[in-house]
Design goal:
Number of helices: 4
Order of helices and strands: HEEHHH
Low-confidence stretches: 1-5
Strand order of the largest sheet: 1-2
Radius of gyration: 29 Å
Mean pLDDT: 76
Largest sheet: 2 strands, antiparallel
Length: about 150
């Protein structure tokens, strides 16, 4: 009886050795096909771009509430009106960031936590809506690359 079990183990070892050797020689033969979900649109990467950026701020010593924001237009070819709108949006984001606590700067588009999308205070700001849009874009990009 013991001889039969020992011989069976040797046969299993040989079979396992053959399977490992074949899988190392032909790795594509043992891979399973992976299918992506059909409703996800693939995103491609874009060329390098430098958008409008809030670079700094100046204030007067005599009147500290008189703020002057320094905005760099980057390589975005915007007209005066579009540049002004973009600059005002960045200033609103900056002021929102000053008024909200740091622990409230998060968004979560996980389908498993539908009750935790974003804090209520952040959801009232333009910056909160923008963060949700960027999180959605990041998830689409990650899904298209995997």
């Amino acid at each position: 009886m013991l001889v039969f079990i020992r011989q069976r183990c040797l046969s299993l070892k040989r079979l396992l050795a053959i399977v490992v050797a074949v899988s190392l020689m032909f790795p594509a033969a043992l891979q399973y096909p992976v299918y992506a979900q059909a409703h996800i649109d693939l995103l491609s990467t874009s060329p390098a771009f430098s958008d409008v950026c809030l670079k700094g701020l100046r204030f007067s010593v005599d009147d500290p509430l008189d703020l002057e924001f320094i905005v760099d237009e980057g390589n975005a070819a915007l007209g005066n009106t579009a540049f002004k709108e973009q600059s005002e949006k960045l200033v609103r984001y900056f002021l929102s960031a000053l008024t909200l606590p740091a622990k409230d700067f998060w968004v979560n588009l996980s389908p498993y936590e539908q009750d935790r999308i974003l804090p209520d205070e952040l959801g009232l700001t333009d910056m909160g809506q923008e963060l949700l849009g960027q999180d959605y874009l990041l998830k689409r990009l990650a899904a298209s690359l995997t």
